[in-house]
Amino acid sequence: MPNGYRRPVAKRSGRRSPTAVLEGTTMTSDKAAARERVQRSSNKPKTTKSYVSLTKHHLDRMTNQGLKITAKGIADYMKQLAYSGELTKSSWYKLRCALASTQELGGFKDSAERLRALKFPTDAKPKPRPRRAKGIDGDDYATLHRELAEKGDSVAWAYLVLARHLGCRPAEVINIAGEIDGNATYFIPSAKKRADGRGLDRFVEITDQRALAEVRRAFSIVQKVPATQRKNLHNVARKRIARTAAGLWPRRAVLPTLYTLRHQMGSDLKASGMSEVECAAIMGHQSTRSIGVYGWARAGRGAVSVRPTRETLARVRKIDPRGSVPVKTPLAGVKPRGLRPNDS
Asked: How far is CA 108 from CA 83, 111, 199, 264, 273, in A?
């Protein structure tokens, strides 16, 4: 493709092209406004940036296939992808959200609404989702912990320890701030801030001294990594842990992953007797609704080494399980329940 090439765009009076927001062009003379819109999008969270990148990839693919970049053309392309078996159902819906969000960003609200109304065809067979363990017992964790230490893989070891004791998302590790006010409190900025209750910046206090010593060591390892190399550090750790697990248990159909530790934390919290609000706060959820998808009480060890601070508890919305109406709870005068120390 020659340098300076720009995909030709059909003219429309007073409307922006679906790809204009990605290419920095508009269908009118108001180019400054388009550049400002793109600049605003670049200042939005990482989710929006990834949506723009994903959309550009698929619009380029549509162009190479000779498909028209219109609302109908994109809808047909999505239907084609669904029947191809190329994507899992969750990946298909993620692409739908990306396309709709970028269309809306480009000024095409009707097209965005049409895309958001798309449903995965009931007779289509999506790509099977890879199976991953939703829990890890104490023996397997100790084996994986020891193997990473013996291999000298300090980064993967640090991520394993932080995910185990803090229950954080892998992408949140690089932004953790430790020893707040000189005590055992750690601040975990959420990597998933959404209006539906799936992201909460939280403060958690480590109550077990053995766990605190490990967390401090792991935290220092991550902090020593140059800032320029931290962006995808969680993916590096994830792949190393996956390879190590595959080497340890080659005959297992389902292997523990870095995210397995988060599911195990959900199980441990439910088995600990803590309230839903406390569990949601530690997991980094804005409401108690999301905690339901993580773990089972019967699979928990009944002991956790962290507890949320009062300020974090006050920011969690308790959702009535019979509906979606928040329930008012007198959090201001409630202290977190006492936790049993973690002996693992």
From this structure: 26, 5, 28, 43, 49
Distance CA 84, CA 78 (A): 10
Burial 321-340, CB ≥16 within 10 A → b, else e: eeeeeeeebebeeeebeebe
Secondary structure of 44-66 in HEC code, one letter for each residue: CCHHHHHHHHHHHHHHHHHHHCC
Which amino acid does the sequence have at 149? A
Q: What CATH code would you report for 20-116? A: 1.10.150
Tell me the three state secondary structure of residue 84: helix
Distance CA 58, CA 244 (A): 34
Domain with CATH 1.10.150 in the chain: 20-116
pTM higher than 0.85: no
Q: What is the pLDDT of residues 103-127, one digit of tens each?
A: 888 888 888 999 999 999 999 999 8
pLDDT tens figures, 20-71: 444 443 333 343 444 454 445 444 567 788 888 999 999 999 999 998 888 8
303: part of which helix (H) or strand (E)? none
- Residues with Cβ < 8 Å from 202, sequence gap 6 or more? 187, 188, 190, 281, 282, 284, 308, 309, 312, 315
Query: Please, where in the chain does CATH 1.10.443 lie?
Result: 138-333
Q: What is the domain class of 138-333 according to CATH?
A: mainly alpha
CA separation, residue 342 to residues 98, 138, 287, 302 (Å)? 41, 11, 26, 9
Nearest-angstrom CA–CA distance, 169 and 160: 11
